């Protein structure tokens, strides 16, 4: 029997206990070993849960239990999750996590600490919920140089955008996402793009080896988007998505999160509801897309348990391949102001607007929707985009970057 401890018995933590119990037979068949939860750390009591008797409020009950081989951290937030993870790794316990905040902020240190202590730190559930993406990027794309990653990385915001297109209000859609167990404890992290920022820095580190700070990358959420933006996107043959993007520019790394117009020909454009998609462009295989449920109790728990199974199936093996992250220095950040992409400009359809747009932007194909005149302009830098918009003298309703 392999014993596991769970830190944090919230949506994902209780899901992991459920996956291990409900799928015990298939896990034993696939692994050749039984895996069971021995202790659960949480501040609360769970008298109605079948796992309630396993709950402890004392982390030392887990840290000092020599029978516990793997600790699954699903507490969320940086502290005490980081501190408990560190203590477990130092005590020679393997750790798996769904906690993207800890991986994005401390992944370099925790991976190094795991290696020093001969254990593993796995985080499949930290990006894309139930989608296998970390392991395939680490192992199956190891023969490639990754060039660029674009992803719909937050289930809550994709759910909200989908519901809004169906006519729901932003607030009603967010409430439903919370009820479905998709949203963060503080949903501002979802709608302001911070959750996606943590995930794109993890994917950037997997791709390029450099762990950027999620606080230092360009990050916009969906709070300023309106139904008029959705209508403009549709008129221009695009859908509107919150996209995490990373690429290498010379020796530097660019990572960012912002709404994007996604042309219908791009496979990310059709991804709706709580689903996530991660499009990886690698130099040998070309484009590969990972798709599935990006949030929710059992999908995310499925990825946590996959990491537990990976660890158990390699127990006793030295030097199992692991990613290596190096903390970024200021010199590693690409200059966002020099980033170049196409943008969709939406101006108020004031008198003479078409002529003024043509005078500044040249010949562009405009559409008129909901009192706006909109078009997709050629690629330009952030500064050029701002200067050209101002030069029209028109009221800018929105500028939304295009995913190319
Ligand atoms: N709040 C996150 C999301 C949970 O909506 O994607 C999964 O990381």
Helix content: 25-40%
Based on Cα principal axes, name the global outline: elongated
* Rg over CA atoms: 23 Å
Based on the structure, what is the oligomeric state of the protein chains?
A: single chain
Helix/strand-derived class? alpha/beta
Major sheet summary line: 10 strands, mixed
Strand coverage percent: 25-35%
Number of helices: 14
Identify the notable features of this structure and list them briefly.
elongated, 14 helices, 18 strands, alpha/beta, six-stranded parallel β-sheet, binds L-homoserine, 404 residues
Question: How would you portray this structure in words?
Answer:
This protein is an alpha/beta fold and 404 residues long. 35% of the residues lie in helices and 27% in strands. The protein has 14 helices and 18 strands. Strands 7, 9, 10, 11, 12, 13, 15, 16, 17 and 18 form a ten-stranded mixed β-sheet that branches. Strand 4, helix 4 (81-90) and strand 5 form a beta-alpha-beta unit. Helix 4 (81-90) runs parallel beside helix 5. The mean pLDDT is 97. The protein binds L-homoserine (HSE). The site of L-homoserine has 11 residues, from helix 7.
């Amino acid at each position: 029997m392999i014993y596991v401890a769970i830190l944090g018995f919230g949506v994902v933590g209780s899901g992991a206990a459920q996956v291990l119990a409900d799928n015990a037979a298939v896990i034993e068949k696939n692994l050749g070993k039984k895996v069971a939860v021995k202790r659960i750390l949480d501040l609360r009591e769970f008298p109605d849960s079948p796992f309630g008797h396993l709950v402890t409020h004392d982390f030392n009950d887990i840290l000092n239990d020599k029978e516990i081989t793997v600790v699954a951290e699903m507490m969320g937030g940086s502290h005490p999750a980081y501190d408990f993870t560190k203590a477990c790794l130092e005590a020679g316990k393997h750790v798996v996590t769904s906690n993207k905040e800890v991986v994005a902020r401390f992944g370099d240190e925790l991976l190094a600490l795991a290696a020093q202590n001969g254990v593993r730190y796995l985080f499949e559930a930290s990006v894309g919920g139930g989608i296998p993406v970390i392991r395939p990027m680490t192992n199956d794309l190891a023969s490639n140089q990754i060039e660029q990653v674009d992803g719909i990385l937050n289930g809550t915001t994709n759910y909200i955008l989908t519901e809004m297109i169906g006519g729901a209000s932003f607030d009603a859609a967010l409430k439903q996402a919370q009820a479905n167990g998709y949203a963060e404890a503080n949903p501002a992290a979802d709608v302001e793009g911070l959750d996606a920022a943590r995930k794109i820095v993890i994917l950037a580190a997997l791709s390029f080896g450099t762990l950027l700070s999620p606080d230092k990358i360009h990050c916009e959420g969906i709070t300023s988007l309106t139904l008029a933006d959705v209508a403009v996107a549709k008129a221009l043959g695009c859908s509107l998505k919150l996209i995490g993007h990373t690429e290498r520019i010379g020796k530097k790394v660019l990572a960012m999160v912002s709404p994007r117009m996604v042309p219908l020909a791009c496979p990310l454009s059709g991804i709706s509801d709580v689903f996530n998609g991660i499009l990886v462009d690698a130099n040998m295989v070309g484009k590969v897309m990972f798709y599935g449920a990006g949030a929710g109790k059992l999908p995310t728990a499925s990825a946590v348990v996959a990491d537990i199974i990976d660890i158990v199936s390699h127990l006793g093996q030295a030097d199992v391949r692991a990613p290596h992250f190096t903390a970024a220095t200021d010199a590693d950040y690409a200059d966002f102001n020099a980033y170049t992409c196409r943008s969709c400009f939406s101006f108020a359809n004031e008198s003479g607007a078409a002529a003024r747009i043509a005078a500044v932007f040249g010949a562009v194909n405009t559409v008129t929707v909901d009192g706006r005149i909109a078009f997709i302009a050629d690629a330009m830098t952030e500064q050029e985009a701002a200067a050209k918009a101002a030069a029209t003298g028109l009221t800018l309703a929105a500028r939304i970057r295009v995913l190319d």
